[in-house]
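so i finally got all the pieces together for this one. its two components total, 672 residues if u count the protein bits. some of the lines might not be protein, just check the labels. i wanna see the whole assembly predicted at once instead of chain by chain like last time, that was a mess tbh
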Amino acid sequence: MTEKALIAAIRKRARGRGSSVLRLGIGDDCAVVRPAADEEIVVTTDFSLEGVHFRREWHSPESVGHKCLARGLSDVAAMGARPVAAFLSMALPKELVEGRRGKAWVERFLDGLLALADRYGAPLAGGDTARSLGPACFDIVVLGTVKRGQAWLRSGAEAGDAIYVTGALGGAAAELLMLERAPRQFAGLKKAALGHPHFFPEPRLAMAAKLAKAGLVGAAIDISDGLSTDLGHICDESGLTAEVDAAAIPVHQLTMEAQRAGLAGTAIDLALHGGDDYELLFTARPGAKVPRRVAGVTVTRIGRMVTRRKGRPQMMLRDQDGRLTTLEPRGWEHFK
Amino acid sequence: MTEKALIAAIRKRARGRGSSVLRLGIGDDCAVVRPAADEEIVVTTDFSLEGVHFRREWHSPESVGHKCLARGLSDVAAMGARPVAAFLSMALPKELVEGRRGKAWVERFLDGLLALADRYGAPLAGGDTARSLGPACFDIVVLGTVKRGQAWLRSGAEAGDAIYVTGALGGAAAELLMLERAPRQFAGLKKAALGHPHFFPEPRLAMAAKLAKAGLVGAAIDISDGLSTDLGHICDESGLTAEVDAAAIPVHQLTMEAQRAGLAGTAIDLALHGGDDYELLFTARPGAKVPRRVAGVTVTRIGRMVTRRKGRPQMMLRDQDGRLTTLEPRGWEHFK
């Protein structure tokens, strides 16, 4: 496979998937994007690295492609925006550019990525291709549109705001533990299926669209590194302290299974610190009428933002007896 | 160095470098960009991979950082656009995130990148960081603005158009040959200096701004893979054939030096097929008054676009005696 042939194949698959915002896609030095007069553009980039974010012996190519794009789409959702275009940079090792098996892997990777792209109207509009001397390396860029001045920011929380999360937490981390113990049980997961938060996370774009319309959200972030770390970012940027009720945290059923199986970490630890959930974490004014279910996904109030006081920790966890303990950010840290 | 500390350091260095277009930079799930009402956004992404695009034992960190961004800026120039924001994704191997020497390398890489970013008003607005299990991997995204509908496209050439290139060609390829033979001679090239097209290529943004204002350009592309390959893209997208006058091609003086030194390839071969020049290749109507010098850089007419005829090659080279031979695209090919 030559580089030109690979680009031509991708271009063919992306063709006809433009949008009113994407004016020019694959095939020039740049793509061209034109937002509506009352909109602005949001931009995010995310790596998916072999050996770090995925393993070819553990993850189907479809899962790798799906997760690659899902990470970018989730960031767009966390701004209250709508995706309009994606850009994929691929550095491929020798065995993925030579021979039929390599080509089939790349095709199936694109199957997974483009199925998700189609579902959310984010056509592939460009990128880069290169040979990698190390593991496979993917970098996804997603552009979205949002009404001017309406993007949700991490700095948007106020003292007194309630804290919410969507869905249930810790499922992806629990499934990763199960995968590490028994990879064969997960072989052949090719299609996005419910109940596999590690392999096929669902970006909360439908949720974000409805919440944006309702105008209820103060600050927001997606839970990619773990609740404790991502809530820390909201505290940092908003200059506030967070109090979280441990009992209120919606714990994914897979965390219970992992706990029962004796895998590392209790269910609540996985829910607090497990990464890769791609649920939304957001704040709303205390009196805001946030529905318990939005776009088919539960929304749970888990705590509140309070004024920061000297000598008090940035995040606190309230146990069932009302006692407050320090909540440390113990989510994903790449350089550990 | 923790990931958080690295991001904080980059954010600190990028602070205060916003623009009217960049509304929100590093620190949220996405950056926010707002073009003027009469503008649209161009987007490009480019890898810089250790062992493929650079070697740490050959290139100073400043050169790697400069080239990383220059590749993206050059794509923006090739659309006739103006850069407004850059996004840097970095996957760093263990030795670059641990210890003082690694930290110093990353600091100097950022020095090179940010010096160029400052010069062209492209503030660092986001990106991603990760640990690499293989070589270092950088992916740069550059966004630019251009007047609506005015972007230069590869498909914009018409039969009869004259073909132009900026600057001189083959210098980067010649310098790479010299580097391969005697790396020590090039040790310590830390600052952008004239005469080092391989280490510190200059994106033709000033040239592009003046040509865009004059409205002279039909099709355009930057010469990143080599004249023969990049001209092939204009032929492909415009559905035309190109005739190039060999004697007219502006040959970089380093190609002569390389030829005299007996390094691989003649001067004209390096100018025709050498990559990494980052000069602009463009077409203009035959009667257009294209100045011979724009923004301090020479502009040279090297041939013409003609109607494609069945059985005729896509590109032809005219020698000094007027004989036409086939010009094959023999520039850079990543998967070779």
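Chain B has two domains: 3-147, 162-326.
The domain at 162-326 of chain B is CATH 3.90.650.10 (Phosphoribosyl-aminoimidazole Synthetase; Chain A, domain 2).
anyway lmk what u think
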